[in-house]
Specification:
- By secondary structure, the protein is of the alpha/beta class.
- The chain has one domain (14-247): Rossmann fold, CATH 3.40.50.720.
- Helix content is 40%, strand content 13%.
- The protein is built from nine helices and seven strands; from the N terminus they run E-H-E-H-E-H-E-H-H-E-H-E-H-H-H-E.
- It has helices spanning 23-34, 46-56, 70-81, 107-127, 129-135, 161-181, 202-206, 208-212, 223-234, and strands at residues 14-18, 38-42, 60-62, 89-92, 142-147, 186-193, 245-248.
- A seven-stranded parallel β-sheet has the order 3-2-1-4-5-6-7, with helices on both faces.
- Strand 5, helix 6 (161-181) and strand 6 form a beta-alpha-beta unit.
- The chain is globular.
- It starts with 13 loop residues before the first strand and ends in a 16-residue tail after the last strand.
């Protein structure tokens, strides 16, 4: 008889979530803690990290750091290694966006977004490789979950050139990293969220009803939607999922009929 009692449990596991103090990262942290994990959260703002940790309880530990540079990634990995020997789950969630007209789009809008959204996840995973490898086994792989976006799958209406490019890049980087790290029983996967209320997605945050009209599911995402997808990938339920991306968007990317063709 199949026993699925503990299939989604994270009891006894240690997780690190970048951008974990608010929005999607906080949703994931809260879900992991509810499933029994010990969760370290990091972001640039120490006050925000400390406030969220206090709110989520003793199994949430703040570890403020800026992961937009290789030096910052190494510093975070060193600070984590002082506290833990193993890392079961790494969630690369920290991200940035930049919008500007094509004629005016600045170099800084490329550098900031690509450094945080693409370089950061790679170099932080590299820096934490010893701890991930120490936690990994065939029966219980370590997990790396990269947070992408449906904007890496299809276009949005805004001129967010570097953001689109970065989110497309992270989904393919996930596959490349997965192909290498599965050799060490480290599963790399990704989540591509759609419209969730956040500081980055102000349209969903401030105009949820209007945004929902263009979503096949007719609502924006809620905290449980994001937490559930991350829990699936992080837990034993996701042990045989490698290199893939789960789209969590109410059907926008893959179930949206859109405009009729000219032959209709």
């Amino acid at each position: 008889m199949m026993d699925i009692t503990n299939l989604f449990s994270l009891q006894g596991r240690v997780a690190l979530i970048t951008g974990g103090s608010k929005n999607l990262g906080k949703h994931i942290a809260e879900g992991f803690i509810a499933q029994g994990a010990k969760v370290y959260i990091t972001s640039r703002k120490a006050d925000s990290c400390n406030e969220t940790a206090a709110e989520l309880g003793p199994n949430c530990i703040p570890l403020p750091m800026d992961v937009s540079s290789v030096e910052g990634c190494k510093a975070l990995a060193a600070a984590f290694a002082e506290r833990e020997e193993k890392l079961d789950i790494l969630v690369n969630n920290a991200g940035a966006a930049w919008g500007a007209p094509f004629e005016e789009f600045p170099e800084v809008g490329w550098d900031k977004v690509m450094d945080l959204n693409v370089k950061g996840p790679f170099f932080l995973t590299q820096a934490l490789y010893p701890q991930l490898k120490a936690a990994a086994s065939k029966g219980q792989p370590a997990k790396v979950i990269n947070i992408g976006s449906i904007d890496g799958i299809r276009l949005n209406p805004w001129e967010t050139y570097s953001y689109h490019a970065s989110k497309a890049a992270i989904l393919y980087l996930t596959k490349r990293m997965a192909a290498r790290l599965i050799q060490d029983q480290i599963n790399v996967t990704a989540i591509a969220p759609g419209a969730f209320a956040s500081d980055m997605n102000r349209a969903a945050r401030d105009h949820a009803d209007a945004v929902a009209k263009n979503i096949p599911n007719k609502r924006i995402g809620v905290a449980e939607d994001m937490a559930a997808a991350a829990i699936f990938l992080a837990s034993n339920a996701g042990n045989y999922v490698v290199g893939d991306t789960i789209t969590v968007d109410g059907g926008v990317a893959h179930a949206n009929i859109g405009s009729p063709s000219i032959d209709a």
